[in-house]
Design goal:
Blueprint lengths: L2 H43 L6 H21 L9 H21 L4 H14 L17 H17 L5 H26 L6 H8 L2 H10 L3 H16 L3 H12 L9 H14 L3 H21 L8 H10 L6 E2 L4 H4 L11 H23 L6 H22 L3 E2 L4 H14 L2 H25 L10 H31 L2
Parallel strand pairs: 1-2
Helix pairs in contact: 1-2, 1-3, 2-18, 3-6, 3-7, 3-8, 4-5, 5-6, 6-8, 6-9, 8-18, 9-10, 9-17, 10-12, 15-16, 16-17, 16-19, 17-18, 18-19
Keywords: Membrane, Transmembrane, Transmembrane helix
Protein name: Integral membrane protein
Length: 481
Amino acid sequence: MTDKKFEVINKLDIANEKVGVIIVYSILITILLFSWWIFNFSEAIFKSRQPDRIIVGITTLIGIILYSYYLIFCGKKSYITKVELIWMLIVAFFVRLALGRAVSGHPIDVNCFKAWMNIVSNDMFNIYEKNIFIDYLPGYLIVLALFKNIVSIVSYSISEELLIKLPNIIADVAIIIMVLGIKRKFGSRLTRVESIVILFNPALIMLSSLWGQSDSFVSMLFITLFVSLVCNFHILAGCVTAYLLFTKPQFILYLPLIILYWIYNLWIRNNTKDVIKQIISFGILSSALYFLFMPYKDILWLPAFFAKVAGEYPYYTVNAFNIYYAAGLNWIKIGGMYNFINLIVLAIAYVLVLVQFGLGLNKTNDKIVQLKYLMQGGLIVGLLSYNFMTGMHERYAIFAWLFCLMLYLMSNDIILLRGAMVISLLSFMNISKVLDLSLSNIYFVQREFSNFLVAIANIIILIVLIYVITHNLLKCKKKGI
């Protein structure tokens, strides 16, 4: 290549990069203006404080614009600067804050969180002795109480609806900061595309800012666990595992992955010292939380709690657009087969996990390789449980998105990033539909063709990603990697 041709191509690349930067900043400024408008005028214009369709429409628009940008510039590896990242973090935080203030959230969930927060902030360790409905573990309730007490101490006026969303809004920002750290640990930098896909993920925005659920906070704990394993913070890893167990009942689906990781390193790799640190710290914090919140003389309260939660929704699906929704079984009672079906699905998921462990690990001492297969196992469990286990809610696919994203961060395989993007978009379509109806006190999603297509797409992405994982495993096996 001649010097002149090289100079022309270099100038063209610089020009394209500048165009990309202009587009990003234009989008972010537009979002900021939208947010400012919602923050200042929504309550005055919409006296009901439930501008549901407009807010959902704006969030959809944000998702479409940003994901369209990703599709257009998906081939470019333009790395984000520190200034751009700080700007994006600020904008992402205030976008969520504005949306959180504009919409009070899912009526049932928000009212439950408000009631539990007020009880726990005054009488934390006796909440499970009170004769009230409660289906959440103490981990998240501690966080709500902490935020409530901080606001009381500083005497700051904030609505309870926004207060219960604040831990998840902060968690969304923390996720991108930890992802940045993971990328640097693996010797790479965060690209502009990756930061946009995470920071302005419409499903995360919907859950943390509009719905008011705890899934973003739980996702942050998952990534914290992953970071602690990557960085050899073994005591932190054990503590985070324990806190996850006492934060979200659904973590029980993923706990066997951690146990398999411990067994593998203890029994096969003889990596005793590090794993013992994790197990001991897990045991200490678990015991502390168990006995601090144990109802009076009820030593078996936690197994009973999990059994109660598992039996609360004996339906094929609870507005989750999965195989049962596609079959017209939304909110249809199962009967005695409820737990039996779930145990079969979970057993199949872990058989697949064990197969991929057997194909890929080859008794490796490489910690990163071990974590890669741990994330693949989480993706398999997340996708299979969401699509085939009964009683699934619309929100639970977000954990499959998280594992897919972390797999991408480790492998830099663009297919996995696109897979994560598809999962999050399908989740957004599911979550936004359910939230939109719930703001009108409608909690049953009728069978519609568009929702049916989302359910089919969820099954297709499950098949595609399992094929991708299997293909990569066999390819690595053939090469002897």
